[in-house]
Predict the structure.
Amino acid sequence: MDYMKSATKEAYKGMRKGQGGPFGAIIIRKGKIISSAHNMVIKTNDPTAHAEIVAIRKATKKLKRFNLSDCEIYSTCEPCLMCFGAIEWAKIKKLYYGCTRKEAKMIGFDDEEIYADLKNAPKTKRLKEVRISSEETLGPFLEWVKKRNKKKY
Amino acid sequence: MDYMKSATKEAYKGMRKGQGGPFGAIIIRKGKIISSAHNMVIKTNDPTAHAEIVAIRKATKKLKRFNLSDCEIYSTCEPCLMCFGAIEWAKIKKLYYGCTRKEAKMIGFDDEEIYADLKNAPKTKRLKEVRISSEETLGPFLEWVKKRNKKKY
């Protein structure tokens, strides 16, 4: 089966319905599609509702676990920084993608700029970062270390 | 008001309820807290439910818009790659954080490794990336260019 074709269909669907940008993603497990999604930023007013993230949320909900290490993901476009991170947190081990982030830039999306901002952080162009001491915030960290039977993710 | 103290309280709350790791985030608009969240990865089985992302989703839902450029975010820990991307997509312009990602690594979280994986991509240690040609996936991109009255995000 041509999974990229399915992902592309999702991209068309979401864009044509006015739900988001022209991006689709499919997650596969044991040769079967377990989730299929498109960008939903506009419909849901959620800036994190990129196709890959929506697909990950659907798949983890279906499987009732946050670990997708037995899955692969197909995305119509190279993941942005946020989605790259999400794919890694989900422990997905293989990613197939079509368009590049340079192509995404050509049609007006900020992926490339966000990658550049990270490279230049904390001197980013757009996001000003201020480190406050960790005097207060280390408290929960220290309690976490001592916590028993904690679930790792 | 000490916003970092509020974020820290969230971190304790989420961890003690067993909902996720020891992380909290607060979003401020015009001097008022508009959303407050903690990590929910364990409770929701959603690997993207980091404190910053949950806070962004709550704030955008409340404001009914995906653009948070008039907001600031306080996070008990330096954002991971995914959350850094999410903050940028939400157009938040100022971030305050407490613990560093090195401190997060010391208590067992992968933030630092994911940053390293991106640096080494596509030769990442954990995620194998396969570029397929964009012959198919360029279709939605070209249609997007021609689309009228589209909403930018």
In short: The beta strands of chain A are 24-29, 32-38, 71-77, 94-99, 128-131. The mean pLDDT of chain A is 95.
